[in-house]
Amino acid sequence: MPVTIIVGAQWGDEGKGKIVDLLSDEIDIVARYQGGANAGHTVVIGEKEYVLHLIPSGIFHRHVSCVIGNGVVIDPIALMDEIAMIKSFNIRIEGRLFISHNAHLIMPYHKLLDNIREQGANKIGTTGRGIGPAYIDKYMRTGIRVVDLLDRKVLADKLKSNIEEKNQLLSKVYGSAVLDVDKIISEYEEFDKKIDPYVTDTSVYLNTALKKKKNILAEGAQGALLDVDHGTYPFVTSSNPTSGGACTGLGIPPTAVKNIIGIVKAYSTRVGNGPFPTEYTDGIGERLRTVGHEFGSTTGRPRRCGWLDMVSLNYSLEINGVKEIALTKLDVLDDFDEIKICTGYKNNKRKLKSFPSDLQTLERVEPVYHSFKGWKEKISGAKKYRQLPKNARRYIEAIEKLSGVPVPIVSVGARRDQTILR
Fold first, then answer.
1. I need a surface site. Which of 144, 235, 245, 422 has the fewest CB within 10 A?
2. Which of 21, 28, 41, 309 is catalytic?
3. Is the dihedral of CA 135, 137, 140, 142 positive or negative?
4. Where exactly are the structural domains of the chain?
5. Does 63 qualify as catalytic in the annotation?
6. Signed CA dihedral, 405, 410, 411, 415: sign only
7. CA geometry: angle at 210 spanning 205 and 216, to 5°?
């Protein structure tokens, strides 16, 4: 199957990094299709933990080529730091990493504006990495792309125009210090020298690979419920983590996609602001956070936690066309006497038929729960499905029944080998 898309089916942080790393063993190319360095994909090999922000999670498999697609916004500092980190592990990256010449760059003014806006009244809860402002410039048609680094005059003209406008905004609206144009031009020219060996037309590269019947894994960042079009707007990211974003973010045709795998955490979490119907702010939420180590791998922020929400999940599975679920962090629930799944929403005592699209309704809904008896034993050593406790299997099978989607992959720990393939 030429292209498999990996989608975070909740609000992000589902464990996509582990599953991409796991599946990469039989993949030729892993391609990242959207987002920026606000994503943190964690891979655990042995006892060593690696956190990636831009480079696809398949990089630790030496036979895999990795692509950063045109839909990604690239922070030069984060990218070079990540390349240096991977090289420090004696992992060859030259000839294996390909960066789209059409990818947009995050500029210093993007980060500055992001942080200033997050201090205002309409706070979203972003990471402050400049992702949103970079996408704004992209759609305003004033963005700086990787290809612009190749021509000093083009780069200088675009930057001077952009920075003149941004300096007006920074000084007159926000009372902030202005930016030095020449300094920024020099910094990005230096970046060009370092990035040049990796830059290519990745759409041509990927489509050529498809003609050769290569297996491609398309890796998204964040989660479908943070999609700018289909998520809990305005508390969303600035791109399309849904499966549809893979084709535009990589320049590949929809006809090449043969499978879509939704990564689903065995409970629910969310970072930042926005509605979260099954959130527990009492002991249960804190217990899930502590046991599950639910702190952002990019920012360290504590994640909001609650029970698995099948209403939002079924909506996500539908809009993404998910064919298989990879269930992660099931082991976090080992010590709970009772485990719940939200099977419906009520609003003013009326049961809703679908996931509400408007923020006001979603903030008011009352979750309807179904309770399951916990299994009360450690499952991280299980290698086969039948080795899981009966109550753990019942929980998994309930998710299959409620979603109508099979769960062939079950993660019972952070390491590669702590995964059950059914």
1. 422
2. 41
3. negative
4. 3-100+199-262, 104-195, 264-421
5. no
6. negative
7. 85
Q: Where are the beta strands (DSSP E) in 220-365?
A: 257-265, 268-270, 304-306, 308-309, 324-328, 338-347, 350-351
Q: Where are the beta strands (DSSP E) in 3-128?
A: 3-8, 29-32, 41-45, 48-52, 65-68, 73-74, 97-100, 104-105
Is 157 part of the annotated catalytic residue set? no
Helix crossing, 310-320 with 390-403: angle to 10°?
60
Residue of 232, 260, 222, 263 whose CA lies nearest to 244: 260
Chunk the chain into consecutive blocks of 10 residues (it has 422) and report each block's average pLDDT, rounded to whole numbers: 93 92 94 86 74 89 96 92 91 94 93 77 67 92 92 87 81 69 85 91 98 96 95 94 98 97 97 92 92 80 95 98 98 97 94 91 95 97 97 98 98 94 94
Q: Which of 13, 75, 192, 227 is flagged as catalytic?
A: 13
Whether omega before 406 lies within 30 degrees of 0, making that bond cis, reads: no
Domain 3-100+199-262 has CATH 3.40.440.10: yes
DSSP, collapsed to helix, strand or coil, labels residue 223 as coil
179: left (phi over 0), alpha (psi -120 to 50) or beta: beta
**CATH classification for the domain delimited by 264-421, as one of 2.170.120.12, 3.90.170.10, 1.10.3720.10, 1.10.3430.10:** 3.90.170.10
Instruction: Say which CATH class 104-195 falls into.
Output: mainly alpha
Of 330, 421, 419, residue with least CA distance to 378: 330
Closest CA to 405 of 307, 265, 264: 264
If you write DSSP's letter for every residue of 321-341 in order, what string do you get?
Answer: T--EEEEE-GGGGTT-SEEEE
List phi, psi (to 5°) of 385: -60, -40
Cα–Cα nearest to 162, from 177, 143, 145: 143
Per-residue model confidence as pLDDT tens digits over 128-179: 788 989 999 999 999 999 999 888 888 888 888 888 888 877 776 666 667 7
- Cα–Cα distance measured from residue 415 to residue 44, given in angstroms and rounded to the nearest whole number: 5
The whole-angstrom separation of Cα 339 and Cα 398 is 12
User: Alpha carbon of 140 to those of 66, 144, 162, 181: distances in Å?
Assistant: 29, 11, 11, 20
Asked if 72 and 98 touch (Cβ cutoff 8 Å), the reply is no
Q: For residues 127 and 106, give the distance between their C-alpha atoms in angstroms, rounded to a whole number.
A: 14
Q: Are strands 366-373 and 73-74 parallel, antiparallel or unpaired?
A: unpaired
